[in-house]
Amino acid sequence: MAENIKQTVEARAQQLLEPIVAGEGLELLEVEFVREHEGWVLRLFIDKPGGRVGLDECTQVSRAVDTVLDVEDIVPHEYNLEVSSPGVNRPLKKPVHYERVKGQKVKVKTFGPIGEPPRKNFTGTLTEVAADAITVDVEGAGSFRISFKDIAKANLEFEF
After folding, report:
1. pTM of the model
2. What is the spatial distance between Cα 40 and Cα 33, in angstroms, rounded to a whole number?
3. In this structure, are strands 105-114 and 133-138 parallel, antiparallel, or unpaired?
4. Residue 2 has what pLDDT?
5. What is the residue-wise DSSP string for 51-120?
6. How far apart are CA 41 and CA 26, in angstroms?
């Protein structure tokens, strides 16, 4: 039951808020609706193409979406709204996100095992981005072509 509410709120918030965030000149990367120690949190991760997200941008988006969330009433109980930058290990959701980090180290987890030998976790250099898949070169294991439909989660692995 809680998983259904989580997925419904995240999907509805993504659909409702994406154009509002875009109207602010920013990109809504990910929506997360989670129960934490203090209660439920609706967390928005935003990005600024070609720039960095700071406190001013987070405040700007928070003000822009707050009224819409109240009016649309998509969350069935009390929650806290948090707007944040994606951080250095930013999530990769859309093909354009993969294009931006091509040539850099990524971490990809698939829904099920793929490749030979079969595996679900791939950490390596993103070498290619196609319309339907990416290619990750995993050191010591070779290159793996991973279809977008098989990707459960992916993020940039920032190297210091």
Report:
1. 0.77
2. 7
3. unpaired
4. 62
5. S---HHHHHHHHHHHHHHHHHHT-SSS--EEEEE---TT-B--SHHHHHHTTTSEEEEEEEEEETTTTEE
6. 21
